What we know:
Number of helices: 21
Largest sheet: 6 strands, mixed
Distance between the termini: 35 Å
Helix content: 40-55%
CATH topology of the domain at 90-109 and 225-439: Rossmann fold
Mean pLDDT: 93
Low-confidence stretches: 248-252
Bound molecules: pyridoxal-5'-phosphate
CATH class of the domain at 90-109 and 225-439: Alpha Beta
Strand order of the largest sheet: 3-4-14-9-10-13
Radius of gyration: 21 Å
Structural class: alpha/beta
Amino acid sequence: MRYVSTRGDATPRTFSEILLEGLAPDGGLYLPQRYPRVDEATLSRWRMLPYADLAFEVLSLYIDDIAAADLRALCRKVYSPAVFGSEAIVPLRPLEPGLWIEGLSNGPTLAFKDMAMQLLGALFEYELARRGERLNILGATSGDTGSAAEYAMRGKRGVQVFMLSPHGRMSPFQQAQMYSLSDANIHNIAIEGVFDDCQDIVKAVAADLAFKRAHRIGSVNSINWARLVAQVVYYFAGWFQATSRTPGSGLTAAAAERISFAVPSGNFGNVFAGHVARMMGLPIDRLIVATNENDVLDEFFRTGRYRVRSATETHETSSPSMDISKASNFERFVCDLLQRDSARTRELFAERLPRDGGFTLDAAALARCADFGFVSGRSTHADRLETIRQVRRQHGDLIDPHTADGVKVARALRRPGETVIALETALPAKFAETIVEAVGSAPRRPEGLRGLEERPRRVVVLPPSAERVKALIEAHDPA
Ligand SMILES: *Cc1c(COP(=O)(O)O)cnc(C)c1O
């Protein structure tokens, strides 16, 4: 498999070449030249596999420059019950007739980002060792991404993480989760400012090309193809679990059976992985995109208009990991909608978007959204609280605010006879404040995380200055 840019750079690159990179040189995102198709016989064979081996099968269709035995060993090390808490790794549980929940948040940081980030950590360590190189990951976080990255990279050889977060602005649990890590290669930097200040510093450091090169600055953001492809696996795993538990479901019956996924969405990485699984031939009926009050994506699927929001139009909500002003993976989807017309994709994202703040796709392209199975809906703070409360009362199941957005939209859009798998993207323990608001009591915390707030902390507080951050990196990475 080779990878090309959404914006027309057609130089074919291997997986290992794009693994440590962010954007393609022309500013586009990498896509595989084509989506490999899997047939019914392959699906029947994959159905029997443990998650780690299923992951190997899916990944090996996209990665052909890592030895198969090595890739399989990496998958087995990462997707183990010790890391994800159960043999199933992504256990499916029934909520009500026609609605299941797939648990993607049983990894070390209690959010689905662990599913991809844990693999990325293993792949980075492997690839850096092979090249005899080192990497300094610089990132900004307001919550889930930073902690998932730190837990994935802790103790990894060849990698250091420098993670900026807004001082005092993350939830106490999120702060404790990150700042309590004592690994020598993890550096927490609390910036006296807001999240945008952190992001500006990352951009300023990355723009200093000499510094970037000398200190091998890299990132782990959501546009990384390796993260996306890791997420494709749990669509297969969820589909297998749902079809094997539905009475009388041989594969053919199951294929006819109409299974859909509801996906709490922000940067469009998670649901894009569902699109890839569907393009590969997994019989997914619909992909239901759920947004919160930041409804850039819902507006697009309803109207064909993609309009990036300004900072003042971007709301701080109680499902904060979906608070986006633009969806960073969306360009990949638009490129597919335009049937890989990279000249038009470039025009929309490199010219129209910066100039007009948005664009509108024509009717033919919008119709293709339906062909790809996409529908959308939105959820609000009141919907979220009501859904958490109602699911708790009716089913005795406690879900987190992001998952609640997915369940709310799944219930609103589900058609008769359709089976919807709602993806659980975080555990309630991570968002105690909203849970208390919804049900009046705090969520239980997994065993190993009790007393997290009392552990010693490793964090450096700095003013919002790129120079100060560079000096800190230099101190830990003498050139
Ligand atoms: C990141 C995140 C999302 C959004 O996922 P995208 O891939 O950005 O669409 C949803 N819920 C939680 C809990 C997250 O951490």
